[in-house]
Amino acid sequence: MRPVAHSLHDEAAARLREAIFAGTLAPGSFLDEAALCERLAISRTPLREALKVLVAEGLLRHEPRRGCFVTEVTERDLDEIFPVIALLEGRAAYEATCRAGAADIAALEVLHERLCQHAADGAIAAYYEANRAIHEAFITLADNRWLAQVIGDLRKILLLARLQQLRAPGRLEHSLAEHMALFAALKRRDPEAAESAMRDHLLRQRDALRDIARNLQSRIAP
């Protein structure tokens, strides 16, 4: 029976995680356990185990005597997370550059060609997807499970913010240039330059998001 319970709470966690990332469960929203049990067709025990998993991942916050709420990501959170993830992904780029073989570089070449085409077309959604694939490729190449685990956890939190940094004026072109500089460093086997390029790339994302937030505030200010 225990393996069945384990699979139930894993499945429930996966479905709730998907709903959170899709925005179906909005930031700040309360999770009604009775309603979720009915919706997911499970009992309270596997649901509560699933909720514990998502609390541990940072996607939910638990308030004593109140229950669970979807995490809200603040500007302060972004200010604190981006320097950390920049350091971690910078290290991943360093290790990936040390380990990349000819076949790895060829595969990254295809991804970067795709990225260039999406940028030329102004296809932001497709650009985001190619961008995500490139970041994941660097993390995979680094072959460091601890880096991958911590970066993955932080990226889950960033997904909650539903970030749209490429909407900032000129950001798409700058992002592409940053990616190409990173790839050039990898191709010439320069791990220090790759680390610096990845770190700068992520910190500039935060700058772009800050500019977007300021522009929105200036528009709604009386």
From TrEMBL:
Domain named HTH gntR-type: residues: 6-73
Keyword Transcription regulation: yes
SMART domains membership: FCD (SM00895), HTH_GNTR (SM00345)
Entry-linked SUPFAM superfamilies: GntR ligand-binding domain-like, Winged helix' DNA-binding domain
CDD domains: WHTH_GntR
Alphabetical UniProt keywords: DNA-binding, Transcription, Transcription regulation
PROSITE patterns in UniProt: HTH_GNTR
Keyword Acetylation attached: no
Recorded GO MF terms: DNA binding; DNA-binding transcription factor activity
InterPro entries: GntR_C, TF_FadR/GntR_C, Tscrpt_reg_HTH_GntR, WH-like_DNA-bd_sf, WH_DNA-bd_sf
Pfam families per UniProt: FCD, GntR
PANTHER family from the UniProt entry: TRANSCRIPTIONAL REGULATOR, GNTR FAMILY, TRANSCRIPTIONAL REGULATORY PROTEIN
Protein name stated in the entry: GntR family transcriptional regulator
Organism: Paenacidovorax monticola
